Structures are given as C-alpha cells and as structure tokens.
Protein 1
Amino acid sequence: MSRSLSLAVVLVLGGFLLVACGAVTTESDGSTVDSGVTAPRSYAPEPSSGSPSNASPELTLTGTVEAGVEKGCLVLVGNGTAYVLIGELAGVVPGSRATVRGHEATNVRTTCQQGSPFRVTAVVEATVGTDPAT
C-alpha cells in the first residue's frame, strides 16, 4: 500500500513540475500572460491613461529574429544587442529580418532568459530569408 502511495505522490509532484516549466510573462499591472505557444501573439495593451514619466523613448530597431532558448520566445539581434520581442508581432518569425518600433519594457519580466524585453507597437517591415550581407 505504501508503494502505491509513494508512486501517486511522485506522479503528482511530477505534474506540478511540468506545469511550473510553462513560460509565463508578468506584466507591469500584475497580470500574467502564458507565452508557452510558438506562434506570435498580442499581449494586453498598456493602459491608455497617458505616458508615465519614466517611460522609455520610442525606438526603431532592425535586426535578425531568432527563436529564443525558451519555447515561444522571439529575440531580435542587431548591433550586438538582443531584445526579447513582446507585443503585436504579425509577420515576425525566426529567420526573418525585421524592423520594429516600440519601447524597452523595463517593468516586464519574462521567462525567455535572454535579451532585454522590448514591447513592439508596430512591425515596420519583416522579410524572410533576406541576408543584408549578400
């Protein structure tokens, strides 16, 4: 009887560990977003009550999009800098060359384990299979 109880405990704990490995992003408002999907998706927009005084300036970044080390993470690499892309990512896929506009998201935590979070407000251009060096 104790052997079957031990097995049940191991199975339950194993299930909890699998659930804990999911990719979850915590937004500045305290809400969480499960980013454990492979397709790009929209995150909840920031409240439209105006721009906070500590908001980062709008930036336009260009680079190559790579799959992150964690499932569902997209990383834009350019000029030796890496940014984890969050927000509206239509047309942005690993292997594409992209130009995006947005803000550094200093108040956002991700499970992507690489790059600084960058909240994309617009995809200016995204092309697949284009190498600027050629």
Note: The two ends are 68 Å apart (CA to CA).
Protein 2
Amino acid sequence: MSYLDEKVRGGRDRQKQALIAEAGKAGAQIHDIVELDASAASSGAVLGGALKAMFGGRMRVDALMLFRLSSNGWGHSYVQPFSGFAPLPGEHYGIVDGSLASPAIVRDGPRLFGGVSFDPAPGAEVAKHLSASPAMKAALRELVWEWPSGMAKIELDWAVQLRSVGDGTTQVVMQSGRYGGLTTYEVGFGVWLRLCAAVHPCLAQGAWPAQYFPVPPRFADVLAGPAPASSPVEPEPALTVALDYGPAIAEALRPHLGKKVWLGEGPAKKMANLRKHVIPAELAGVPTLATIDLTVFGSAKDAIVLTPTQLLTKEFDDRLRVELATILDVPAGQSAASSSVEITVARLGSVKVPVGTDFQPVHDLLAAVARVNAGAAGPVHAEVSAFIGEAPGQVSMAEAQQLQAQAQAQMHAGSVDAKINAAASLLVGGQYQAAIDMYLQIAREHPERTGTCYGQVGAGLFFIQHYARAIEYYEAAKQHGADPRMMDENIAEARAYL
C-alpha cells in the first residue's frame, strides 16, 4: 500500500470512528456499515451516478460509507461521501408514518430574524403547515448550512426535503452541514432525530400518490429502492445473542479485579454514576456482567459496561454501543501503550474501544468475548411469546424509569414469577432491550423457565425488527417446552417480514 493510499484509508477510518461515536451520543445504534469504493469491482453499478456528484465545482466523490442505524426501533440511514480522504456533506434518510399532499423543501435563502422555513414553490399550503409547527421551527433553527473543508467551504443549497412515498409514509432527507469536530466531522445525528420527531405530528393519515423530491438528493440511488430506510437493517447474524459470556468474562478479568474493575454490581455510588452517565436510560434496569472504570480518580462517570448482550462505553463525550455477539476478533499485535483496543465487529468493521489508563483489562475482556463468539454453536436457552402483532405503545421517560426500577427490585428480591412479570412490564412498556436482557438473566437463574423467557426474548427481538434472531429464539423456545403451535405462528409472522 502506498503512502497516499494509507493516508486516504486513515482519513476515512478516522471519520468512520467519529460517526460511530456521534451516533452513540445521539442514542442511535449502528447495525451495518457498507463501504463503497470506485476501485471495487462490485461497486460500480451500486454507486451509479453518486460517484459523479460534485461539490463546489471541483471535489468529486470517489467513495461512500452507508450507515444503517436504528433509534428506539425506528430505522434510518446516513450516506457519508469522500473525496480522497476528505469527508464531504452527507445525507440522512428515513421513513415516517403519514403523508403530505405535496413535496416540501427547505432551501438556502434569506432568513429573516434568523428564521428558516419551507419553500412554498412545491406546495404553498404544505409549506405553510410545516413552517407553522413550533417543534419544526425549533428543529430548523438547528440546521447548519456550511461544510468547511481546509481553506474552502461548501455551502448547502438545501437542507431538508420530504416526499410522500405513496403507501401512507413520507421519506425525509436531511443534507448535512458540519455540526462540529476538529480533525473529523460531526454530521448532526441529534439534529436529524429531532427533525424527524418534529415531522411526524405534521403528517396526515392516509396515502397521497408517490411524489418526487423537488431537488434530487445526491445519494438516493445508493439505497436499495425508494424507501430503503423504512426499517433497520437486520443482517443475517453469524452468531446469536443468547450466549452466556459470564464465565469467560470472569476468567479474563480475574487478574485485574480491584477498585476500577469489578464483576456484577459494584459499589453503590459508582453504580449510581454508571446509570446516570454511562448506561442509556432504556437499559437502566438491566443487570451488568462487568465494569471497567475509565476515570483517573475512580468515579465511574466514564466506563466500559457489559450487560448480558451489550458492550457500552463512555469516555468524555464519546459513546459506543455494540452487541456482544457481533464482536468477531481482537487483532493481534496491538500496543499496550495505545489509548484504545481495536476490535472487529460484524458489519461495522474496525471499531476502537477506549481503555482509559490501563490497556490490558480492556484487551483481555474483549478478547474473551471474541473467543466465546468464535466457539458459539447456537442459542443457549429459550421460551414463548404471546406479544406478537403491533408493538406496544411507547411510555414516557419517567414511566420507563419507574418500570426499570421495579424490574431491578424484583430481580434482587422477587420470586421467579415476579421477575417474569416485571420483565413483561418492560416489554409491554416498549423497553425492549431492557426486557430482553432481563429475560436472559432469568433464564440463567431459573433454567426451568427457559422456555417462557426465550419466547419473550423472541417477542422483544420481533418488536425491534430483528426478525431472523426472533425466529431463532422461537425455535429454541419449542425445544424448551414452549407451545409448538404458538411458536410456529410467531415464526410464520416473523418470516413474513424477512
């Protein structure tokens, strides 16, 4: 590899790591990263006209990264273009329920008193309706219209577009300005999510005919079909999330146990800091397998936390969330003086995990997870779910925290039936990941109830649109005594979405 190739690869990888961290801060989970390069033999047809896109009249796109994400079960995508090693303005894509009588666009132009509004040209009534929404006004004020790059600056001609897809949904696209970053670029994941939250109440029920965007987005053809971001990508997993990592993690961390490394529940003050600063609110009630405190003085406000299914990290403002079952490898030869451990994650590629002040425990922990995955043969436990159909309605943050607190109390002191009922409350309350983790723990502690627990795990995976994994749990549930007829019905419904 030439020096120039290494520079290009390094620049693109730094931007990828920055986007992973930014998405984590915004509460979005990345399910897949597809890298498309003009030199790849298979990429020509996929990239199509996207490689012809020009910025500022001189910068041509020669590579793309397609990020597929989900936030609270809602799927969306981001396309990051590059010219050499330099990132260029990308585009966010998503599908929202409801439709509009005409397409809509927010263009660059005069902004009286700092205000931004929709252009009336594609449809005056729709533009007026959207611009009148207080939530929409607040979202539009956050938009950034410039992308500084070295001594140059790319100015966006539009920032937001909406079009009815024709099936009762609306496709939303946001072009990204530079929302921060010094040597890398923040692309506004948080702004994007707040924008889409503002769009949804403005849409009407019913299906208007399919529409075109007023200005064709540069990268729409890269996505598969007219509405590719309507659901989170569910790639076929080589591994299942039902593995028991506890013994391997305990063995790996045994030489490092102390004030900054512990298994299970740690000191009360540190656990309070973890749940306030590190663990996302929707996972506040889940059990923890292990924790590595990344702070200098031991506050645990920055840390690595493992739940039965998730790797969670926070260091300063950078956050990372990865499913344990997707950690494939910890490449050999890494320096103990490094500030991070490089891991290989299915569908994401290389990801860097911070180590704080001590490289070795983090390295040993991640290597243990990768070894468990390498030897995985299938699900570990399982049982039934009767929660198939429309997903339960979402609850407020306060209600979610109350559900999680009740669930945590039952896990420490309740009977097995009380634990299962508490997990069911999380599931019905829309706290899917917390419910999944709790059911997995119950199955480990009460093997005789494995069938019930794994059936509910299948329901949780169904609701977050992990249909292939849901089927695995339903099949395993049958093997542990679940009602075969009910499981077969659930499997048939999940297969219909594949």
Note: The longest helix spans residues 3-25.
Protein 3
Amino acid sequence: MSESTKKGRRAGVRETARILGWHMRTIQYHEQQGRYKRGPDGKFDVEEVERQIKKYSHSGYNPDAHKESGPGRDSENKSDVITSDISFDEARRLKEIWDGKISQLKYEEQNGTLIKKEEVRKIVFGIFRGLRDGLTALSRDVSVHVAAEDDPVKCERIILDEITGAIDRYINEFNRGI
C-alpha cells in the first residue's frame, strides 16, 4: 500500500494488519507490549503502528520478512523450505504463516468446506466402481446389436452411442445423489 494511503489512516487490528501486510498477532503482540495504543475510537494510527514496530525491532530486523505472502504479494512463499540455520525472526515468521494455515484448515473443516481424505476416497471409490460395473454390463447389451450389423461404421456408432448413453445416465444419477 502506498505511503499516501497509510498517512493519517485509522484502522482496527484486522485492517491495520491487512494494510501493512503483517499478521494480526504481530499487531496485537506489539500493542500488548505497550508500543502503541488505540485511539479513543478504538482504532490504530496505521503509520504510527508501522513506525513503532520498526523502532522497537532489533537492527537486523527486516520488516518485509514478516509480511504475509499470498495472492497479490510480490514475495514468493518461502514457508515450504525450512533450514537448520534460520534466525529467530525467520522461525517466528514461518510459525505465524503455518499457524495461519492451520487456522484456515480448522475453519474450513468446521464450515464444511473441507472434508476428510477418507471420505473423499470412499466417494471416489463408489463413483468408479459404479462406472466400472456400468461399462462392463454394457458389453452384454451392445453385443446383440453389433452382431446383427455388417457395416463396421454402424457397429462403431452403436458402441459409441451406448457408451455415451451409459456415462450420461451415470452422471445424471450421480448429480441427483449430491
């Protein structure tokens, strides 16, 4: 976010964290340490929050290292690589990223948008078992019609029509079950 957008801007914890690209816990931690206070309206001066976090951080602190990565961010997500010689700040940054990911997974599970791997396996197994059974039974139904035909083009057309029809019926049955 540009400096002109931050200047004089007042925002709550979530909005301040979003504007600065930091985790909410970072903002809350520094507030608990007394490094800055909320105004009478219960909001922070975004510019002051950024200035105080930089002021109270050690000299080797890189404020951009704590910025969250995600859609719309220029920095690449380095949270997938953990080395044994990382600094405390880097370890804390990684922990915040993974805590956020775990929180998101828990929320999605409670919300019903995330389902367990075993449930997906059962559903997919049922889908493919039904498809397999339907396609193997197809040979019985088609064999009589194909045997009666002499033209290979008509034979192929009969087989393709039956396969397409079986798959369409299966898809319609599956969609009704959902």
Note: The mean pLDDT is 78.
